[in-house]
Design a protein that fits this description.
single chain; 313 residues; alpha/beta; TIM Barrel; 8 strands; 12% strand; globular
Amino acid sequence: MRSPVRAIEEAAMHEFRIDELHGIHAILYALFDRDERLDREAMRRQVEICLASGVHGMAALGLATEASKLDESERMMVMDWIIEDAGGRVPVAVTIFGSSVEEQIRQARHAATAGADWLILQPPMVGQFSAAEYIGFFGRVADRTDLPVAIQNAPALMGRGLTAADIRDLVRRHPNIRLVKGEGPVVDIANLIEVTEGQLPVFNGRAGMELLDNLRIGCRGLILAPDSIDYAVRAYEFFSDGWDDHAEEAYRQMLPGVVFTMQGIENLLCYGKRLFGVRAGIEIHDRAPAMRPTATGLDMTNRYAACLGGFPE
């Protein structure tokens, strides 16, 4: 298995190519201070921990980053921070959140100027529309950027999404759409890979649920919040090297915490972020409105954190 340091060195040795994208990518939490402002030092520390854990890529402004609670200037600031802190050592993706085509194009342009390697487009979180409307929306944004684009398809978490056939048609019409960021069970992701004939790189998420089975059915990797990112990297590397027993053991170690945190997005933001904070030694504060932790939840968080231990330095 490659060491985390070696993984970072290898990533820095060659220019990023979209067809090489693989592995475990960390999606950053939004870390706030006591006054509910984004905490610059905590965000930098989060990136450092992920890089030390050997991630194959970084990402920000997805569901875990609470983009809907950030105004546009804050979202652009987070783009600048993650790209600066990653320092070109791994590819960086930026999720584009916005209610209109123009808002998403504006943010895509900022991401490109800041130095992002690829974009992940979210459907606008307003209303409920037909697949044709979302296909048209995504296509208009994708056509206005030179960066490779992925679609985030998370109907269970976002209340809107596309079928596998819809995604196949979308990428045929807009060749700049090169990947899919899924958020679904392995059986659904397997169907997507089959319908798109394995030509479209697919990443899953869901905090790492079914991690190894995602890899077995052909996922290029997973994009996960960082509370157990070191174990996810370990499982991926062991699996890639053919050490299935070691991969299963690493996955078993992280799985109880994954099941605990991934009971829904608000639960992840409450307890997944705190699990990361305990392991990282970072005090966690929420930006209202937010799910507030209970004594039982904090006890479980501390117990899982003790089992996982601290992050690699």
